[in-house]
Specification:
Oligomer: single chain
Order of helices and strands: EHEEHEHEHEHHEHEHHEHEHEEH
Distance between the termini: 29 Å
CATH architecture of the largest domain: 3-Layer(aba) Sandwich
CATH class of the largest domain: Alpha Beta
CATH superfamily of the largest domain: NAD(P)-binding Rossmann-like Domain
Largest sheet: 6 strands, parallel
Number of domains: 2
Shape: globular
Structural class: alpha/beta
Strand content: 5-15%
Amino acid sequence: MRCDRKSVPNPLRLITLAPSVASSLRKLPVTKKTMPKIVVPGDDPVQITGSPHLDRLSEFGEVVIFSDRPETDEEKISRLHDADVLINSRGAVKWPGSVLSQLPRLRFITVCGIGTDPIDLQTAREQGIVVSNIPGKTAPVVAEHALCLMCAAAKRVAFQTAELKEGRWTRKENILLAGKTLGIVGAGPIGSHMAKLGKAIGMHVIAWTFNPTDERAEDLGVPFVELDELLRTSDVVSLHVKLTEESRHMIGKRELALMKSDGLLVNTARGAVVDTDALVESLNSGQLAGAALDVFEAEPLPSDDSLLDCEQLVLTPHAADQTPEGLDLLNEGVVDNVIAFLEGQPRNIVT
């Protein structure tokens, strides 16, 4: 059910829960008065609305989708006050502890992707809320996007396009990637796929991870090195770590200064992994040759953001997995997560 807050004052309705499903629930005992309510509180831009995978939820409970984002914490609480399941289809919609603590009925949250940084996991744990994500399902899709961003930055695509549109025939040297070193920061599913793609175009690949082992290095097919060594020796640094307090601003002024002056930075992880002010300074001073970003500390990116004044920068609007195939994989995964929880066998548990 798709709801527009401005035109439908009360979008909620009940859907009868199949008895065969009700008998299997452990987390949510079902009676005639209590049937699971599954809420998507802000599907903007559209992620799951209209997905055929939603049909699979019809026998499990009521599904309510809001087509606009909640603008305040009060609005979040209003939309979720009687919800059992929250599908957070957009990471820009945040769930701090002050909100989660006012949702006593909520028992399950699934994000529509890998990152769970929009959710206060500590409060969720204290409230007994199970949180799941979708690890690795769209790794090839995101890695391909990262590869394309890297190539676009190396070939000065955004800069040269802008120059031509202004009527200027500006020649600036491109960067040959074959034979150069690609440094992968974060060796999960996306980083692993990015390593394969780098090798495919003739790059030498090295990697860093929070948890290096000989077995992981062998599986990845590339050596693990210390982060400072990776930054000093890589021609391209591609970021693929999840956002935690440990990874927040892990690439700052000191780290950027370690990179080669003709080096490139690619970020398809989370915007806050990079100190934006330090990156802008590095780009504008020529300390760094270019960057390609799909993620930002503030999303949507403000129209007056200082990044937009940088010449050698390629930008996409957090769209790395936004292909028809990627969207379908994510929607399938999030519905699978909900059904698994409602059947008493939660999967992909983060907390």
